[in-house]
């Protein structure tokens, strides 16, 4: 079975469900859908390519690069961190942390922020790569920390959210929550504003904390665990949150995709869905990669599906991203697919990395940046 599942004991070992569609050990697993031919409408042109160490490594990491200013920052699983000029691919600086990185990369306010398998948060100087500080967390940090310039916030595998002083690294506060018995391996990256730190939990809840003291401002349950087995009851928010204006978008595994009001947590709309990836938003629609490999475009106003493309079934899709007039999504064989935002039909496809694409693509202007599992980082544009 392609899924990797590990039980979480009292020692807070990470549990993982790396792919979807496995309903019984006795049933033969279907292979990934074969790619179908289509009339190519969009051609991607490679601007540059750069190798970032060993990329995602041998375990299921979700190391997503980050863009700030003229640079893109990326890290591999062994602790190599690189700042790369996003226009030409030149290396600005590189840093060897000499310890495994599992949560990467957060960037902002002059800081590059990373989490480690050893349960640490490391902050580097954005301009030079020199270490500013290192602080302990309660367990593995599997997603990128975030900051508003005053507080650095990290979420741990055991559903703790920790606020650190951005200058010294001293712990200011900690929010503690009991994790679910069985969870996906990974956590969504927290979102930080001037007032709030927002995190999605393994129990299917979203919590917004006062950034100054970590006290909950609101909590909202997006998914309710259902079923007889613990596997059936997994409702992780694992693909990350998306904030656009005053709306917070969230997708859960075996639960729902929803839009929440930022200040109150009130549900604006919701739709049944199962996704271990995040969502993208554009033109009044939300785009989601479902766990079974279907990509959907959802109308925010009515929560109905505008279109659905199931041609990528069981291809272990990553998080989608809006690129120009298209939706970009990577798969387990390393293809980047471009779909029309209007009706979801394929308009383009490019093979990036034979080891697969797991990290969400990044878009800045007319350039899309794709980080392959092997460590290949490519910048592409529409020809």
TrEMBL record:
Keywords: Cell outer membrane, Lipoprotein, Membrane, Palmitate, Signal. It is found in: Cell outer membrane. PROSITE patterns: PROKAR_LIPOPROTEIN. It comes from the Bacteria. Its main location: membrane. One of its GO terms (cellular component) is cell outer membrane. GO terms for biological process: Gram-negative-bacterium-type cell outer membrane assembly; protein insertion into membrane. Residues 1-19 form the signal peptide. The keyword Nucleus does not apply. Residues 78-309 form the Pyrrolo-quinoline quinone repeat domain. Coiled coil: none annotated. The keyword Thylakoid does not apply. SUPFAM superfamilies: Quinoprotein alcohol dehydrogenase-like. It is a lipid-anchor. Part of the Bam complex. Belongs to the BamB family. Part of the outer membrane protein assembly complex, which is involved in assembly and insertion of beta-barrel proteins into the outer membrane. This is Outer membrane protein assembly factor BamB.
């Amino acid at each position: 079975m392609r899924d990797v599942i590990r039980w979480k004991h009292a020692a807070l070992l990470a549990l993982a469900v790396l792919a979807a569609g496995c309903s019984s050990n006795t049933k033969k697993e279907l292979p990934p859908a074969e790619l179908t031919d289509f009339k190519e409408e969009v051609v991607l042109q490679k601007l540059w390519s750069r190798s970032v160490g060993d990329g995602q490594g041998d375990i299921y990491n979700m190391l997503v690069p980050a863009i700030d200013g003229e640079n893109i920052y990326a890290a591999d699983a062994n602790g190599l961190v690189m700042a790369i000029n996003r226009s030409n691919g030149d290396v600005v600086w590189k840093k060897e942390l000499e310890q495994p990185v599992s949560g990467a990369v957060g960037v902002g306010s002059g800081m590059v922020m990373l989490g480690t398998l050893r349960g640490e948060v490391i902050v580097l100087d954005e301009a030079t790569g020199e270490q500013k500080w290192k602080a302990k967390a309660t367990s593995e940090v599997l997603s990128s920390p975030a900051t508003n310039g005053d507080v650095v916030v990290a979420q741990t595998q055991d559903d703790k959210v920790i606020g650190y002083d951005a200058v010294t690294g001293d712990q200011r506060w900690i929010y503690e929550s009991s994790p679910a018995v069985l969870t996906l391996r990974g956590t969504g990256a927290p979102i930080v504003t001037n007032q709030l730190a927002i995190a999605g939990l393994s129990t299917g809840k979203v919590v917004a904390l006062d950034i100054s003291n970590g006290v909950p401002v609101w909590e909202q349950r997006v998914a309710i665990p259902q079923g007889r087995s613990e596997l059936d009851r997994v409702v992780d928010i694992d693909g990350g949150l998306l904030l656009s204006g005053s709306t917070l978008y969230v997708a859960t595994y075996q639960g729902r995709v929803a839009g929440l009001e930022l200040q109150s947590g009130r549900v604006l709309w919701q739709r049944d869905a199962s996704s271990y990836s995040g969502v993208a938003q554009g033109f009044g629609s939300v785009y989601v990669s479902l766990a079974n490999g279907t990509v959907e475009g959802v109308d925010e106003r009515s929560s109905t599906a505008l279109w659905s493309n199931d041609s990528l079934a069981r291809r272990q899709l990553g998080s989608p991203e809006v690129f120009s007039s298209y939706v970009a999504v990577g798969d387990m064989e390393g293809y980047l697919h471009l779909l029309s935002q209007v009706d979801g039909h394929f308009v383009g496809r490019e093979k990036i990395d034979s080891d697969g694409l797991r990290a969400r693509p990044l878009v800045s202007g007319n350039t899309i940046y794709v980080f392959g599992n092997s460590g290949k980082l490519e910048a592409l544009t529409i020809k």
